[in-house]
Design a protein that fits this description.
Number of strands: 10
Shape: globular
Bound molecules: ligand C2E, calcium ion
Helix content: 40-55%
Largest sheet: 8 strands, mixed, barrel
Order of helices and strands: HEEEHHEHHEHEHEHHEHEEH
Length: about 280
């Protein structure tokens, strides 16, 4: 192909194709939110006695051809394009409807449900009011809703983020700091923010039992820190019995990972709980 008179290519066909693909994906995702192609999958969260105390909701996109698209393939695009706000609102309203159903069912009542809140959603001034409205509409106990927030929300405006967190805390919902240790964690802010739960990122858990003892030091230090600050400490990405034993022996309160269950359709999660003695 000729690259123009000066030998300068103004249009890179490959780049153009990828821009087209992105636009198409963006249109399809907007449509998917409208037409109900998103699904919540639930991954169990377990306490030290093996009881399922709740679940994290993880979104998937079930396309009309039956393929299940993982969030890594559309959440970043949703964040860049602002679609994350309607997507997040869909997750939130699904979560509250689900919690309302659980409350009415003795086999499921008392379990909490954690949802992921993206920075754009967190910064939306109407977010707290929306939660309050949905809690009231569904008559859900606020303590059963957990909001997972990543450190990135503190990057730009710590004061504004702190105010939002305090507003959310005042609603009585549970607040979890997600992916702890991977971002811009500052011990100074951790102590003054109203988090109820710290989630140890799975990359630290994955490196336990490797010859490198430094990762054990990081994990045990996060657990000790969380406990000192009277937060619950949850380890993500627990895959092996050795990781489970190590974490529990060092005082970690809650565990989540393939060892206890992969993210699964809601009905499957509920069936498993019904087969379990009440927590
Ligand atoms: P995350 O919040 O850190 O979620 C944990 C991810 O680790 C999930 O990936 C989960 O399937 C995976 N995982 C759980 N246990 C294990 C394990 O034992 N081993 C390994 N290797 N992986 C494990 P998933 O479902 O693909 O979600 C990826 C990310 O997408 C999430 O990371 C979260 O940041 C984002 N995401 C998912 N759902 C939502 C949502 O509704 N809203 C927003 N804003 N983000 C979401
Ligand atoms: Ca999460
Ligand atoms: Ca609180
Ligand atoms: Ca995480």
């Amino acid at each position: 192909k000729q690259a123009g008179r000066d030998g300068v290519a103004f249009f890179d066909p490959e780049m153009e194709a990828s821009i087209h693909a992105r636009h198409r994906l963006q249109r399809e995702l907007a449509q998917a939110i409208e037409s109900g192609e998103l699904r919540l999958y639930l991954q169990p969260q377990i306490d030290g006695r093996g009881n399922t105390v709740g679940a994290e909701a993880l979104v998937r996109w079930l396309r009309p051809d039956g393929t299940l698209v993982p969030p890594g393939q559309f959440i970043p695009l949703a964040e860049e394009t602002g679609l994350i706000v309607p997507l997040g609102d869909w997750v939130l309203s699904q979560a509250l409807a689900l919690l309302a159903g659980w409350q009415r069912d003795p086999a499921l009542a008392g379990r909490r449900l954690a949802i992921n809140v993206s920075p754009a959603q967190f910064r939306d001034p109407g977010f707290g009011t929306r939660i309050q409205q949905l809690l009231a509409q569904h008559g859900v106990d606020p303590r059963l809703l957990e909001l997972e927030i990543t450190e990135s929300v503190f990057l730009h405006d710590l004061d504004a983020a702190r105010d939002t967190l305090r507003t959310l805390d005042a609603l009585g919902v549970s607040l979890a700091l997600d992916d702890f240790g991977t971002g811009y964690s500052s011990l100074a802010y951790l102590a003054e923010l109203p988090f109820d739960v710290i989630k140890i990122d799975q990359r630290f858990v994955a490196r336990l039992q490797q010859p490198n003892r430094q990762d054990e030091a990081i994990v045990t230090t996060i657990i000790a820190l969380g406990r000192k600050l009277r937060m619950q400490v949850l380890a993500e990405g627990v895959e092996t019995a050795q990781q489970e034993d190590y974490l529990l022996a060092h005082g970690c309160h809650l565990l989540q990972g393939y060892r206890f269950g992969r993210p699964m359709p809601i009905e499957q999660f509920e069936t498993q709980l019904r087969a379990q003695p009440a927590a």
